[in-house]
Amino acid sequence: MLATIFKDIGALTAISGLLAVVLVLAERIFNNYGQCKININGKRDIEVKGGNNLLASLSDKQIYLPSACGGRGSCGACKCKVLEGGGPLLPTEKPFLSKAELAAGVRLSCQIKVKSDIAVEIPDSIFNIRRFDATIAEIIDYTHDTKGITFVLEPGESIDFKAGQYVQLLTEPYAKVRQRVSRAYSISSKPEDKDRLQLIIRLVPEGICTTWVHQYLKVGDKVSFTGPYGDFYLRDTDADILFVAGGSGKAPIKSILEHLEVVGTQRKMTYFFGARTLKDLYLTEEMRALEKVFPDFHYEPVLSQPAPDDNWSGKTGYVMRHFPDVIRDPQNTEAYLCGSPGMIDAVIKALTGLGVAKDKIYYDSFG
Ligand SMILES: Cc1cc2nc3c(=O)[nH]c(=O)nc-3n(C[C@H](O)[C@H](O)[C@H](O)COP(=O)(O)OP(=O)(O)OC[C@H]3O[C@@H](n4cnc5c(N)ncnc54)[C@H](O)[C@@H]3O)c2cc1C
Ligand code: FES
């Protein structure tokens, strides 16, 4: 009886081993696309090994399209126009593309496999995005789950960005995680500091990048990132400003405020920061200090579920309920929002309901 079981297990192991060999061979034979050419803007060709996705193929050649979700097809940031090749549109791309984009041949570069020659159009601004190497100079525990990390660039290097933009941090393998991923993080320091930058990173349970950052990175470690990316930055107008952030969404607003501290502003600004309890608030003193710097700036932390021993006497509930108290001229108000997709959606709904124009609401959704 036992001998039969062992014989069956042996046979099964042999069959699965054989299947694995066949699959590897098939992958090599059928998915060998050889060298493929990517024509860029009708101006130059780059040669890549076929079989990779377009996003990764371009990145291998130091052309860094934004890819906030790291190529998982969930952010829609990696759009680029495909003029020739690229195969049929995939169902995973459709939700991210407008009718006009579909008609113009815009695709999600992380979803396209380069199997043959392909021609693409890439905006000139993308060619300014670079890869940087840096050393961790400081790690601050802002809250129980949020750290501020300062990275100093290699000697002689400098980064130009607009306050509010983000970089993509590249992870290294750690513990049992063998894959390298890249994740988007807003720069929280001011653009005037060109040889270093700070990120504010909140731990996501089981998250690949945030676990690496929170549990493995230490002062002196070397890291790499690409950037800068994004169109979340302060518009140069004299409109009233409403900042709304939750959690690590404080990062780009901090950068914008620190930049305004350098260049000065007369604009009326109100900043609502939503958190659950007192232990989720951070940088409160720094924000209060800015109230004394600007002629018309108010910082309003709002707790949705203050704990009894928080002894909280400030604003409570969801941030939206306090908007009517501060928006004096909706048509002359710009809003800058940063945080979870749920918060962003709810705030946009509330603001448009109060008469703030949708095209004056700028946001980075951290989903
Ligand atoms: C433009 C942009 C700027 C961003 N800036 C910041 C920033 O300044 N600071 C910051 O901390 N984060 C920021 N993020 C979010 C960040 O890019 C990562 O998504 C986040 O840190 C999780 O990465 P991870 O690799 O640890 O988790 P993953 O391994 O990607 O995810 C693990 C699991 O958690 C879920 N998950 C992913 N993200 C979140 C989340 N934020 N909350 C709850 N569950 C989640 C996933 O669906 C998955 O199931 C930004 C995102 C975008 C798009
Ligand atoms: S990188 Fe996020 S959808 Fe392509």
What would your notes on this structure say?
The chain has 8 helices and 17 strands. The chain is α/β, with parallel strands linked by helices and 367 residues long. It has 3 domains: 92 residues, Beta-grasp domain (Ubiquitin-like (UB roll), Roll); 101 residues, Elongation Factor Tu (Ef-tu), domain 3 (Beta Barrel), CATH 2.40.30; 126 residues, Nucleotide-binding domain of ferredoxin-NADP reductase (FNR) module (Rossmann fold). The chain has a 6-stranded antiparallel beta sheet with strand order 9-8-11-6-7-10. β6 and β7 form a beta hairpin. The longest helix has 29 residues. The mean pLDDT is 93. The protein binds flavin-adenine dinucleotide and FE2/S2 (inorganic) cluster (FES). FE2/S2 (inorganic) cluster binds next to loops.
